[in-house]
Amino acid sequence: MVYIRCDLCQSDRYITIEAMGRFRHPVTNVVCCQCGLVFQNPRLENGELNSFYANHFSEDLYGLIGADLMSVIDGHRFNYIRNYIKENFSEYDPRRMKILEIGCGHGGLMKLLEKDGYCVEGIEPSISLCKSSCDKGLKVYNCFLEDFVSRHRFDLVLAFHVIEHTSSAVTFMKKINSLLDDKGRVVIETPDVWHLYGDPHTGRDYLFRKDHTFTFSENSLGFLASLTGFNSRPIKRLTPRHIWFEFNREESTQRQTPLLQDRYEDIVCHVFNYRAHFSWRQRILTTERLIILQSLILKLVGQKGLKNIKAFLRKIGIYRLIEKIRS
Q1: What positions belong to coiled-coil segments (predicted)?
Q2: What are phi and psi of 214, to 5 degrees?
């Protein structure tokens, strides 16, 4: 395990907001006190991450979702992307349009796009998933994005639930930028930190996971775009809890919207409130969370003064939490 700085602003000031992940795996997530990015810290070293995705990720993914449900999801994404292309690439001939899907999995979406006449290539680090895609006759490279080399540029890059798994989102987006055509676009889907889901007490279907190195918001994705040479905008979502976001190279030097950042205090309150109000009957105030709360209070005392602590505790519902546990 390795401790890291914030990937966006390089700050080393952060506060722990969660010490448990899905299935009660010990996973520590923190929020940057400078820009509000939520990330896993400490996390696996790069070599360990690469080994996990190459050899074990397919088992974890399809053990949770299942191939049949994944096919349904691919169908919804295909309909969405086909409409998106019609709206944003109206002058393009589908037979000449080049699309790259990063983290293409078993190739379900690629196959649908290929049948629709598009020239599609894929990148998949999982050995078993890459083999499954190649068996379908698809052009898929078994590598990580940073190792990918192409002789041509792409008009559209797709990355669904990939960016939250990277070791550096900044490096990831800079690499994509180098692969895009001058008017190229990127569409990503990723969990939204402002739409938490799952059971934070049992870990069932919990948003925070051992393989999620980042948890973004629309604001943090906009900040990421500004750091990597893109203009950006949120686009229509398929589900409320997952962000759909577009990065594009058009007018990237002139931002169309003001750059916003999340306040770390708001994210801390949001996460603690979610846990406190999820299910009182199932609520277990573990030793780990008490340690987190104690550390949080001490840091806030140093930063904001003692007079604000009582109001902060009321805001995150700790008083109500203790009363419920006692009853």
Answers
A1: none
A2: -135, 150
Say what the alpha-carbon torsion angle 108, 113, 114, 118 is, to the nearest 10 degrees.
-150
Q: Amino acid identity of 145?
A: L
**Contact residues for 296 (Cβ-Cβ < 8 A; gap 6+):** 15, 16, 268
pLDDT values of the chain reduced to their tens digit, one per residue, 327 residues: 899 999 999 999 999 999 988 878 889 999 999 999 999 999 988 888 778 777 766 655 544 555 667 788 889 999 999 999 999 987 777 778 999 999 998 899 999 999 999 999 999 998 888 998 999 999 999 999 999 999 999 999 999 999 999 999 999 999 999 999 988 999 999 999 999 988 887 777 788 988 899 999 999 999 999 999 999 999 999 989 999 999 998 754 444 445 678 999 999 989 988 887 765 544 444 555 556 666 666 666 565 555 555 565 555 555 454 444 444
Q: Tell me the two tokens of residue 233.
A: 């905008």
Sequence ranges of the domains in the chain: 46-160, 264-326
User: Which architecture does CATH list for 46-160?
Assistant: 3-Layer(aba) Sandwich (3.40)
Give the other-Cβ count within 10 Å of 163's Cβ.
Answer: 24
